[in-house]
């Protein structure tokens, strides 16, 4: 029987690459995102896959919407990948308004909490959960305090959930470095010289290039698979050696 997976933030970028990767291993993937237009428009992309990707419009921070999305899924869920997130504005703590703080923590952390809470009771045959945090959750980040704090909390949540839900459910976390997606583009566009900033970041990565969404998807697919049967509570850095 094929696995059923739920991937949040799967409308584009890393989440989409994860959804496609899991579908290639034969899974039926429910792809949740605020905006699934791109995913719907490229249905042909999934013809080669063994499994399939089902786009579902859903605000993963909204308990009622998450519940509704889960109710539309038949049978048990085997894999959950929490990827939805936003980077927020470049501000230090005194510069961060309440609304901005709440927005970043809600999009990055509450989504993980709310979707995990809804999915865990559906993992009746056991399962694997992978959260997407960030290396900034480990190192901190200049001018992105709220973002870094939200990602550090995901690291902590991973360890608590790994203990709470073993042995039936494994819970792991991937911390990507700089991955070339819309979020990364938005980040470099804020620099005085975006092209120079992109080159600077790239030049500091030991493996010599920015990450691709597929680099993260490979790590997620491993952690979600039987190959990782004895791995839980792990924090896997996927950053081309940036924090080595
Ligand atoms: N790109 C990077 O360099 C990088 C590095 C480290 C970690 N990450 C993390 O990886 C994840 C994916 O990032 P990305 O670069 O693909 O970003 P992205 O902006 O390209 O994609 C993020 C997706 O999440 C969706 N989303 C946001 N809030 C949502 C919500 N409440 N409900 C449902 N969907 C929601 C967006 O609509 C979007 O499709 C994020 O959690 C991000 O913090 C990215």
Tell me briefly what this model is:
The chain has helices spanning 13-24, 37-41, 63-71, 98-119, 136-139, 145-165, 182-189, 194-203, 213-224; strands at 4-8, 28-33, 52-57, 79-82, 127-132, 169-176, 235-238.
Give the strand content.
15-25%
Fold-level CATH name of the largest domain: Rossmann fold
What number is the mean pLDDT? 95
* CATH architecture group name of the largest domain: 3-Layer(aba) Sandwich
* Overall spatial form: globular
SSE-based structural type: alpha/beta
N/C terminus separation? 40 Å
What Rg do the Cα atoms give? Answer: 17 Å
Strand order of the largest sheet: 3-2-1-4-5-6-7
Low-confidence stretches: none
Q: Kindly state the number of beta strands.
A: 7
Specify the biggest β-sheet.
Answer: 7 strands, parallel
Bound molecules: nicotinamide-adenine-dinucleotide
Count of DSSP helices?
9
Helix content: 40-55%
User: Order of SSEs, N→C?
Assistant: EHEHEHEHEHHEHHHE
**CATH-defined superfamily of the largest domain:** NAD(P)-binding Rossmann-like Domain
What's the number of structural domains? 2
CATH class of the largest domain: Alpha Beta
């Amino acid at each position: 029987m094929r696995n059923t997976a739920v991937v949040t933030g799967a409308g584009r970028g890393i989440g989409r690459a994860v959804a496609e990767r899991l579908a290639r291993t034969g899974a039926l993937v429910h792809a949740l995102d605020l905006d699934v237009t791109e995913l719907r428009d490229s249905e042909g992309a999934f013809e080669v896959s063994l499994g399939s990707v089902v786009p579902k419009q859903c605000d993963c921070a909204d308990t009622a919407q998450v519940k509704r999305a889960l109710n539309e899924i038949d049978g048990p869920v085997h894999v959950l990948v929490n990827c939805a997130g936003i980077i927020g504005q470049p501000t230090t703590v005194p510069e961060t308004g309440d609304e901005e703080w709440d927005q970043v923590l809600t999009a990055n952390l509450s989504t993980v909490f709310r979707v995990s809470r809804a999915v865990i009771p559906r993992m009746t045959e056991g399962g694997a959960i992978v959260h997407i945090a960030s290396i900034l959750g480990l190192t901190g980040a200049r001018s992105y305090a709220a973002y870094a704090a939200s990602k550090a909390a995901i690291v902590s949540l991973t360890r608590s959930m790994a203990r709470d839900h073993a042995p039936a459910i494994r819970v792991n976390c991937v911390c990507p470095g700089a991955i070339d997606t819309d979020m990364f583009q938005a980040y470099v566009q804020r620099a005085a010289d975006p092209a120079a900033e992109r080159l600077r970041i790239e030049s500091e990565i030991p493996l010599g290039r920015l990450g691709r969404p597929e680099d993260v998807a490979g790590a997620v697919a491993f952690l979600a698979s039987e190959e990782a049967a004895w791995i839980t509570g792990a924090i896997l850095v996927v950053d081309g050696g940036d924090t080595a």
